[in-house]
Amino acid sequence: MRPHYFLCSFLFFLATFFASAQSDDNKLTKKDTIWTTEGTFQFLINQAAFNSDWQGGGTSNYSVNAVVNYDISYNKGKYTWDTKLLGDYGISKTKDQEFNRKTSDRLEINSTVGRQINQSNWYTSAFVNFRTQFDNGYTFGEDADGNESRTLRTQFMSPAFTQLGLGALWKKSEDIRVNISPVTGRIITANSRFTTGPDYVDGDFFGLDQGKTIRTEFGASVNAFVKFKLMENITVDNILGLYSNYLEDPQNVDIDYTLNLIMDVNKYISANFIFQAIYDDNAVQGFQIRESLGVGFNYNF
């Protein structure tokens, strides 16, 4: 996918952000309780099968994907605390492939606490963000005999990204908020197996030097979340994260944007479209793009 697709999605994010901001009241909606929780669990499956007499071409395959999206919010007086848990894991298998392929793999926790400034929508804030993956990641190829082979590329906690920062939170409602942190520390960790060996070049594995398991950075970050109803039974989540490392190439801003479109058929059946674009020049010199679309079981809790 070409980078201009990401640009279109980013512009869509900005448009929906300002449209949603204009349509809401100027003050936050009061809650009946200081704690509110909301979450969804989705299990999506796609499958295609062809028998040996099928002449139209095609290969039997299946894919499954599980998504958890859970929000916890605290509001009392001048204080607010928002925590979001994201879990997304999927695999696919084609008949002629020896190994399964991952279609998605994400574990992320975002938590922001703030204290209101006067009676405005602005808060002084502190935040923590943690991001890693559930399962091993591989690159695939062929061995000398022409058989399919795979090489371990990543695994749980390798890499893992942790950000902590201080700044200001702008919060229009539970569904519209932006946190700006000019003081952000980031820690990247990995198992030493990924950074050792005679052929390893400093920085090849997410910026870590040879033999190192920890990389520390200091910079600035912006994190935004916008959720709205596109129409009846269709909900759109937009999550945007930006980070600039003051200490090394601050002009190379890391970007992580996710669009999650949920189309409810009924209480238990939904269709889900996920688009994610990541730019991190410590990982690869270009945009990492993924899309997934499926229909499956949906449960709200």
UniProtKB/TrEMBL annotation:
Q: What is the lineage of its organism?
A: Bacteria, Pseudomonadati, Bacteroidota, Flavobacteriia, Flavobacteriales
Q: What is this protein called?
A: DUF3078 domain-containing protein
A Pfam family reported for this protein in Swiss-Prot or TrEMBL: DUF3078
Q: In the UniProt record, does the keyword Signal occur? A: yes
- InterPro entries found in the cross-reference section: DUF3078
Q: Where would one find the signal peptide in this protein?
A: 1-21
The organism is Psychroflexus sediminis
Q: Tell me the keywords, alphabetical order.
A: Signal
